[in-house]
Amino acid sequence: MQQRAVETRQLILEAAAEVFDEGGYKAARVSEIMQRAGITQGALYFHFASKLELARTVMLSQRDSVVLPPGPDGLQRLIDTTLLLARELQTNKLLRAGVRLAVEQEEIGFHDDAPYLEWAEVFRDQLTAAASRGQLRSGVEVERLAVLLVGCYTGVQHFSKLSSRRADLPDRIADLWHYMLLGIAPPQVAAEMTVNPDAALAAAG
Q: How far apart are CA 74 and CA 86, in angstroms?
């Protein structure tokens, strides 16, 4: 029974992600989520007390829906992570819905910077490793750079969503790195980095 409950909860999250991704929070109907998940109203409300709670859970599940690329911690793994995320945002409905709901928070009626802080922590860990390996310029502040990178990424992916439905997102993130590397990494380190969406995807398997 416990395993069945876990599977049902995941079905609900995936169905909700599809609906939230397609039309946003306000247009989403609980009845549509139930239909796609193939469950009853009682089953849905057993796991989630309200549409708002369901949306918040989807938003906070975005990090769990992505497996980070392999490789030693440091600047290259950070680059590969952001490029993999760009690919995932093209196909991963749970990630896309979580990102959309995070952007729509004020309109929805809750305020939670947890998803942004979670990605900032992921980026910070790689930047900390990069600093210890001498891959960052002197004076680069890891904490501030991690937060800045989350902000830049959020803006770039949103622009890409509006302009091309994210078809060009991997290339836009590659552009971001081509220019950012000039400011944060010594020239010899920047020259060693591979900024290639296809290579990052292949490395992730």
A: 19
Residue-level pLDDT at 157 = 94
Helix %, strand %, coil % for the chain, to 5? 75, 0, 25
Q: Which CATH superfamily is domain 63-204 in?
A: Tetracycline Repressor, domain 2 (1.10.357.10)
Give pLDDT tens digits for 143-168: 999 999 999 999 999 999 999 999 99
Q: Could you tell me where the DSSP H helices lie in the chain? A: 2-27, 30-37, 41-47, 51-60, 75-91, 93-103, 105-108, 114-132, 142-164, 169-184, 187-192, 197-204
**pTM to 2 decimals?**
0.88
Distance CA 88, CA 7 (A): 22
Spell out the domain ranges in the chain: 2-60, 63-204
Cα distance between residue 87 and residue 24, in whole Å:
21
